[in-house]
Specification:
By secondary structure, the chain is of the alpha+beta class. The protein folds into two domains: 152 residues, no CATH class; 298 residues, paralog of FGE (formylglycine-generating enzyme). A five-stranded antiparallel beta sheet has the order 1-2-5-12-6. A four-stranded mixed beta sheet has the order 10-9-7-11, with helices on one face. The radius of gyration is 31 Å and the shape is globular.
């Protein structure tokens, strides 16, 4: 064999091999498209009804709330009876198993022998309705017209899903197939249902305070209590000097501020506290904001009208309990303070900006109340491209971008500052009673007493949050609300005055005046 013929033979071999590979690739693509199109066809409602011949299945399905509603949304068989499509493997394996079972039953069994009533009962239904599919569709559990009981039950379920032996279908068995005889399920374990809860252990009276010392407040009519810290009055330098790393112009000029003693909550207002307020005051309407703010100076305020139902999950699915309550507006925080004042007979309110910074410093004059330079902790700057920021000791005192796991955390994870207050510099930003003014420190002179700024469009917020860089967690760092931006994606018209849709890391803590309590 000549060299030329050998080359031709080798070339022909590779041509045939390439042809077969191309042919196999085309065949594989055609096969995948065919399988996919077959899968799509057998996901239609019509294909499902080919096998599901039980009496009234189609009729009851089309009369259900999933089909017969005013939203325009129509839910199909596979939306309820298969795992969500984004769970690709689970979705298609479940589809194959159910498909094989249905075809086998259709070919080998007589539908007249089936106990259809038994198959409509809850213990049978839960095996055919993945809970993940219910949650995939129902990201908004609070549609227009929802009752108060439904809202509180859903909130309780959301916060306690892991320990409750329940699925969505446990209460909503008639959602997918209409049954005129079905009695809607209730979440009897929900503490928000007063008929289902033993209230004998609830606090009957608020804590009596007769001395300027720490106390545990108890909210009458609830099982909730919280720690209040006695913060001594004094004079401190408010703001930052030119040598402080990452300082901003609105933190100057520094001035001497004298404050009267006050009590401040050890931690931010928790979900346990906020849901107690919500349960007792929730409304379908609104108390005008101007009335709420006017009531701040009225100790004899009438009954408080609280938040309307939230849109979606205000706790972001992170959990309740001692975690800080978040996403409420400044107006809602003020309303909470009025409710708490009325419940306890004390004067609870938001801290002034000066009180907040004084409390955060805990008697120190450094950027943080613990040792360390902001440059060492911050991710900002050229050298951070090559060297990691120091996370010790800041992580022991602050929940911030480096240790938060991108969510708020429980206060037990951090140590207190010298005054005994936790999470002053992180976890969530905290509302203050002042309106924001970038020039606030230049007004009133070098020495001021109990300052409060009432001029401006936005409110002061302090402390940074779980996404913040260490540079923004300094005691002197200032920020403010961005009301319109934080409501940008709120679908409600008019937009909510109670809940923000586009900010997660905002909350608040309360202070209590000593007037009338301590002599």
């Amino acid at each position: 064999m000549t060299i030329e013929s050998h080359r031709n033979k080798k070339k022909n071999f590779f041509k045939r091999k390439s042809f077969y590979l191309l042919l196999g690739l085309v065949f594989g693509i055609i096969l995948m498209i065919s399988v996919y199109q077959t899968s799509v066809y057998f996901s239609t409602d019509e294909s499902c009804m080919m096998c599901h011949v039980h009496p009234h299945a189609e009729e009851s399905w089309k009369l259900s709330k999933h089909m017969d509603n005013g939203s325009g949304t129509k839910v199909h068989c596979v939306d309820c009876h298969l795992p969500p499509k984004n769970q690709t493997w689970d979705h298609y394996t479940a589809k194959a198993k159910l498909g094989i079972r249905d075809v086998w039953g259709y070919l080998t069994k007589d539908s007249a022998d089936f106990d259809w009533d038994r198959m409509s009962e809850l213990d049978y239904a839960v095996t055919y309705i993945p809970n993940a599919s219910c949650k995939e569709c129902h990201y908004n559990l609070f549609p227009d017209g929802v009752t108060d009981d439904a809202v509180t039950a859903h909130l309780y379920y959301e916060e306690n899903e892991e320990k409750l032996d329940l699925q969505c279908i446990s209460c909503h068995l008639d959602a997918g197939h209409y049954n005129p005889n079905y009695q809607h399920g209730t979440l009897a374990a929900a503490p928000t249902s007063k008929n289902a809860v033993d209230t004998s252990a609830y606090f009957k009276t608020a804590t009596e305070v007769t001395a300027f010392e720490n106390y545990v407040e108890q909210i009458p009519g609830t099982p909730v209590s919280f720690n209040m810290v006695a913060v001594p009055g004094g004079t401190f330098k408010m703001g930052s000097d030119e040598k402080e790393s990452f300082r901003k112009e609105d933190e100057s000029p520094m001035r001497n501020v004298t404050l009267s003693p006050f009590f401040m909550a050890e931690i931010e207002v928790t979900w346990d506290m906020y849901w107690s307020f919500y349960e007792e005051t929730m409304s379908e309407g609104r108390t005008p904001p101007e009335k709420v703010y006017a009531n701040n100076s009225n100790p004899d305020v009438d009954a408080v009208s609280g938040p309307t139902p939230p849109f979606g999950f205000p706790d972001q699915g992170w959990g309740g309990g001692d975690r800080p309550a978040i996403t409420m507006t400044h107006y809602a925080a003020e309303t909470f303070c009025q409710w708490l004042s009325k419940k306890t007979g004390k004067k609870y309110r938001l801290p002034t900006e000066a009180e907040w910074e004084y409390a955060a410093r805990g008697g120190t004059e450094t950027p943080y109340f613990f040792e360390g330079d902001p440059k060492d902790f911050s991710d900002q700057g050229f050298w951070r491209k090559f060297f990691d920021a120091d996370v010790d000791p800041i992580s022991g005192f602050v929940i911030y971008g480096k240790n938060s796991k991108n969510r708020s955390q429980e206060p037990s994870l951090v140590k207190a500052n010298p005054f005994g207050l936790k999470n002053m510099l992180g976890n969530v930003m905290e509302y203050c009673a002042d309106k924001y003014d970038p020039q606030a420190y230049s007004k009133g002179g070098d020495n001021v007493t109990n300052p409060l700024n009432t001029e401006g469009e936005e409110w002061v917020v302090r402390g940074g949050n779980y996404t913040s860089d260490a540079a923004d967690l300094r005691c002197a760092a200032r920020d403010y609300t961005k009301h319109d931006a934080w409501l940008k994606t709120d679908p409600q018209q008019p937009k909510s005055i109670w809940w923000y849709s586009d900010i997660k890391g905002i909350g608040f803590r309360v202070v209590c005046d000593t007037n009338g309590l301590v002599k």
